[in-house]
Amino acid sequence: MLDASAPVVHQHAPPTSFIRKWVFSVDHKVIGKQYYGLALISVFLGMILSWLMRFHLVWTNAAIPGLQLISKNGAPGGVMTPEYYLSLLTMHGTLMVFFVLTNAPFAGFGNYFLPIQVGAEDMAFPRFNMMSFWVTFVAFVVLIAAFFIPDGPPISGWTAYAPLSAVGRDAGPGLAWGQTLWAISIGLFCVGQLLGSLNFIATTLDLRTKGMTLSRLPISTWAWFITSCIGLLAFAVLLPACVLLILDRVAGTSFFIPAGLVISDHLQPHAGGSPLLWQHLFWFFGHPEVYIAIVPAVGIVSHILMASMRKPLLSVKVVYSSMIAIGFLSYMVWGHHMFLSGMNPFSGLVFSFPTLVITIPATIITMIWIGSVYGANLRFHTPCLFSLGFISVFVAGGVSGFFLAQPSLDIQLHGTYFVVGHFHMVMGVAAIFGILAGSYFWFPKMTGRMMNDTLGRLHFWITFIGVYCIFMPFHYLGLAGNVRRYSSFVDDYLQPLLPLHKFITIAAFITGAAQFIFLYNLIYSRFKGAPAPANPWDATSLEWSTTSPPPFDNFGGRHVVVYHGPNEYGVSGAHGDFIMQDSSEPGPEPVPGD
Amino acid sequence: MSTIALQTDRGVRPAAQNAPALSGIWVAIAAITMAFAAFTSSLIIRQGSGDDWRHLALPGVLYLNTVVLLASSLTLEIARRKDAANLASTRSWLYLTFALGILFLAGQILAWYQLRGQGLYLATSPNSSFFYVFTVMHALHVLGGLAGFVYAIRRTLSPSSWRTTTLDAAATYWHFLAGLWVYLLLVLRMRL
Amino acid sequence: MGKLLAVVLVLIAVGSAIPILMHTWWMPEDISTHGHMIDRQMSETMAESGIAFVAAQLVLAAFVAMFGDKKDGRKAKHLPGGAKLVVIAAIALVGTEVLALGVFGKDAWAEVYFRKPVADAIPIQVQAEQFGFYFRYAGPDGKFGPMHPEKIDEGSQNFFGLDPEHDVESRDDIVSASLVIPMNKEISLMMHAKDVGHSFYVRELRIQQDFVPGLDIPMHFTATKAGKYEIVCTQLCGLGHYNMRAFLEVKSPEEFDQWLKQQSQ
Amino acid sequence: MQVVKVCTTLVAALSIAAIVTAAPGGGTVTGKVTYTGTPVKPKPIDMSKEPSCVKQHATPEMTETVVTGPGNTLENVVVYISAGAPAESNASSAATFDQKGCHYQPHVLAFEVNQELKITNSDQTSHNIHPLAKVNQEWNKSQPPGTPPLTAKYEKPEFISVKCNIHPWMHGYFAVLGTSHYAVSDGSGEFKLPNLPPGKYTLTAWQESYGTQTQEVTISGNETKTVNFTFTAKPY
């Protein structure tokens, strides 16, 4: 069935009609921008949701003017109801994890730059590529539709634990149609990602240009390739899970619903299902998903760091070997999300070990980065700042993993804000920093104009300090036993923690506001920015040896030939301290580790 | 897949742009295998979790369908071995394969009707649920394969656009579906 | 710019560490017999991770300060020892840490999950539901009456679906909205979920365990300090999740027996 | 001119008065609802999870599935005309259902099909109102403190059990009736159905645990008839 897409890329001519050019385009560059745009919409939507939640948490009974216009049931008189808080929580998580952290660094930048970096004119299966975006787009629409149905969006969180997510309206508002829409949306999203991963893998394997050996692939391409291998297997498991969930919800089957449940005085007509089955399927996807979000960021940051440090990493091979190790291990650790889920306690220890071991490759990568900064000639442009900031937050989020990897500490920390702090730091903030670094780095190539560096730095400083003010305290709250996913804090022991929550909320408002600087910078620079040269950062990989923005076939009919590795920085080249991959000048002795 | 990678490692741009189709097929096969592995482990966990596991007699027609599907694999292989010289017979073999594929689907639908006849619906018991899930999911992939054939046959209409890898890819996928079906049949037979 | 970034990194490292060192927000005092193991483990992990975190930030700061703001042309240097050193260091440091945590960490886990409750532990059934906890004591006959889901009727406080009309064991069962237990006596909880997933969390007890519908999960602990503590739900269970709580009252054995008497009449 | 105005208003006033006095004409059914046997004894409700509600009750609230009065009488029994009366509706005001001290007031609220239902929250905590309707459309909405009253309507007659999931002990009933002739028995088990036009009626009494009973009654003129209901109570 794959043949259905004509892979003869250099045969299709640039489309002329608006629809074929910008809407249903098969050009990987347009599709990449479409993914990036979708992620941009999602991330600001998700951020505004988090603002509403933070506001509600500290001013629980205060009215949010105008909210009742958005949802009459969700916010009578503007005061958010508990179920509406949970709806926002679910949508925030789903939007951020799926439509931002998966779409932007992987599908977005990957689509745009993977083919160029390997020297291809397009992806292996351009039509599948187009399908993959539009399926994802439909998934997005279906998800957002949940806001506009009477019951509102689901309230079961982005993990949609069964049976809460499976039993339907008895268990609460939003669990009727809202949850079904959610399941359909995620199912579609899986299809889109599978098509995407397929393209990434085939393109990397088969469309590399002359001289582009695997070891000459830029680190970012390595990251996207590894990510697509992870994603291929992860989403292939989430899809069946969604199918079974939908059947339980609409067809009356009992995959996840056991017998004898009495929900709102109503004895459920199900028997024999296993709630743990959902958790196993979901986390078998869910944990790799963390790496689907972070590995591309690791690649992007490594890629940018070398261009900013004007020297290669101590060893690029070690970095991508570690990424492969992480990807491999990520399939053996899903159980650490279920230490307290009533699994056989022995499996707790079994899952704990690989979880702790996975920190080794992560530490190696981090130490390689930090070690590489030694002796660098840092150029502090905005992409560089965000890359260095990435290292900092990646470490901050990583170390808290040590706690949660241990079942005995999970007894105290599971289900508290410590977990929230952990994954927001390491998966959310870190990945977002990777995305922002990539945005500032590649914007010139994608649009032909430079972004405003002053605004960029301002954006960086507020964001960098802001995220620490928001997410570090989460860990403290967790240590004090502050339970997550509460729409307000009624427990006596939580009252002393409210001031800290106020602080976090204020920090969140400021940091969030700073993101609009970025948005303004994007839009302003797109039209008014200084014209970008072909290679503004003196970088080496192939995307910089074509025009900004690249022509429809990426290299203007030229068949690029690659003579050098991607990391030839800090050498004496024709144009300065670097040698571009496709320049025929003689290269120096191979860089250590490559 | 690896062979192709090696070939390009020598720096030679693949001549036939169909090479991706072949490795793409293998990637797809990996994903599909993963999905059905997930379904299978769900079945095993589900069987252990409830005491409502009721044995279910598989409709006899399934075995007939198995034969049909395997036969279609055979005819496809014959078609594939033909060279560009005698496209006509290649095409006729492909048509036959296509017809057998349709026949297989018809047989599956018959099997579903037989089960309904016994009052076994999707939600009747975990066993019937899994039966329908497995067979329907497989049938969907067969449909995809048939769509591939339409394309492959179109490609074989003229010697100019004749590409063996197109057919190779379609064949690889089709044989995989046959193998997958045999596996599913065994699972259903042993577990349900 | 490099200096500035370095300063900010140092401030972040120090600023994050202070509340930890001062225990400004920390676990409450432990009132269980097994908790001290978890606390020790927590402190050790905190020390190791904390040092790793601060060290990483400071080294990064130092390098950024040293090698930032240089103009091009200077030959790029490499870290003495290069990648090999880094990899070995990482594996050595983290490897030992992992082993240490993995090995010593399992004691607390084993105490909570591998050890069977003692023979004379007080059996108590806890049912989690949207949105509250209800507790059942076997009563004088020491037997729990069977549960009949179809009989559940919260309007008449029949949360467990008991049928005293037909089941003799049910008649003397004591149902309470608070978990009242004697000090220094092991409690063996049977955890039952009535509708969806919930969780049982008492931070002072260092106990947290999910309720899984369809599974009855055993749990045991011993409280060592009298007082009133909060039991909260930590598994998202629906709109009332935030308000799903009950109180744990640890009493002296005498007070406990007295309380039981009151309840049974 | 003035005189004419005055006269017309006078006439108008008189005619209105006449109509008003004529309308309520008709008989009345009164009676008592009692029980035989031993009913379940009310259990105290532990609200400790919601301190703000505990404060509002000097003595703990009791379960209200069976509320008895002096002389084996039953409170909260809905008595209504289930057949014979024209299905006219003269519900002018809204039926109000209040949540106070984590307790529904009243425990059983009878109102008419398509009559406006107004739900208020007098507590300092959020409640979710979850009427478990089967014939009518089910819904489930939270009401944070200080938010405007919820309003709803029901199209079809039904006895709807109402619960608050956040406070599992909170249970009440909506008696949605197709007639305007209904009453809920008071603390002494008494009820009164006034303004019945002459005719033959079926009278139904409904108790949440004991179900329904019916009796025939014929009203002629302005007479007052007494109809008593007796339920048999079970200790469990």
Describe this structure in words.
- Chain A is an all-alpha fold and 594 residues long.
- Chain A contains 17 helices and 4 strands.
- Chain A has helices at residues 18-23, 28-58, 67-70, 82-100, 103-118, 126-145, 177-206, 219-251, 275-309, 316-329, 345-357, 359-373, 382-404, 407-413, 417-447, 453-479, 498-528; strands at 262-263, 266-267, 569-573, 576-578.
- In chain A, the strands form 2 sheets. Chain A has a two-stranded antiparallel sheet. A two-stranded antiparallel sheet of chain A has the order 3-4.
- In chain A, strand 3 and strand 4 (576-578) form a beta hairpin.
- In chain A, helix 2 (28-58) runs antiparallel to helix 17, helix 8 runs parallel beside helix 10 and helix 13 runs antiparallel to helix 15.
- The longest helix of chain A has 35 residues, at 275-309.
- Chain B has one domain: Cytochrome c oxidase, subunit III, four-helix bundle (Four Helix Bundle (Hemerythrin (Met), subunit A), Up-down Bundle).
- Chain B is elongated and about 60 Å long.
- Chain B starts with a helix and ends with a helix.
- Chain C is α+β, with helices and mostly antiparallel strands.
- Chain C has helices spanning 2-21, 35-67, 82-113, 168-171, 253-264; strands at 122-129, 132-137, 174-176, 179-182, 186-193, 198-202, 207-211, 217-222, 227-232, 245-251.
- The model of chain C has no long low-confidence stretch (mean pLDDT 91).
- Chain D has 236 residues and is mainly beta.
- Chain D is built from 2 helices and 19 strands.
- In chain D, a hairpin with a 4-residue loop joins strand 5 (95-99) and strand 6.
- Chain D starts with a helix and ends with a strand.
- The chains are: A mainly alpha (594), B mainly alpha (192), C alpha+beta (265), D mainly beta (236).
- Chain C binds chain D through residues 129-132, 153-157, 159, 163-165, 176-178, 238-240, 243, 245-247, and chain D through 40, 43, 45-50, 63-65, 125-126, 128, 142, 161, 163, 165-169, 171, 208-209, 234-236.
